[in-house]
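User: I'll paste a sequence; please echo it back and then give the predicted structure.

Assistant: Echoing your sequence first, then the prediction.
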Amino acid sequence: MQGKVAVVTGAGGGIGAACAAEFASRGVAVLLADIDGEAAQKRAAEIASTGAAAYGLQVDVQVEKDVEAMIAEAITRFGRLDILQNNAAATVASQQDDDLTVMDTDLWDLTMAVNLRGPMLGCKYAIPIMIDTGGGVIVNISSGSAVIGEPTRFAYGASKAGLNSMTRSVAARYGKQNIRCVAVMPGITLTDRAREALHGSPWLETMERHHATPRLGRLDDIAKFVAFVASDDAGFITGSVHAVDGGVLSAAPYAAYMREHGTQPF
């Protein structure tokens, strides 16, 4: 991946920041974009301190002019664009996304604007650049909420299902022009925010019980997989959605009971 250029949205922290750092460790120049410009610049400075090329930029992915300027900035600074990682998500909104019958429609619209319109705008402006320079890879960070029914996060799940669909459509339309597009669905990943929210909570034990692996996800689990699918080693992978989730989506809802009791529940 040496010499390639990546743009990562939502890179001020969590999965986005970890992926940006992983790209940089492999010789990729990275533009880190986030609605929190200071956070993006701080993360970029940390990466740059290792000798890698990195730049932080304030970007609201809902705003078309912001996204257009983000792609243009990557070209101005680094001369090309090989990888776009659509990672930014309306995480604060998802915490209020609880009951469809009383949902404020503005919450629905905000979730769709960030989680689905944002990646669409990224693709709109990145794909022509990638085609002109011989191809590229788009990695959309989705969620298991896209493929299962949850009793909450109605807008979030719908937005991520739409993102999975857009992933397949982009791959189908632009694949012959050497554009690959994949989606990644992380499982419960212990970001700083997740650790803080789960500390002392009974949810932590519940989540651990329902994963097939002995532990929950780490940031490098996601970052290393994203780096792989964005690399030439994954050149035959496109239009697909990948669960990197410790097997939580692969198991029946009663799997934890059967593991713990060694028998069927009936």
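The two ends are 52 Å apart (CA to CA). The chain has one domain: 5-196+218-251.
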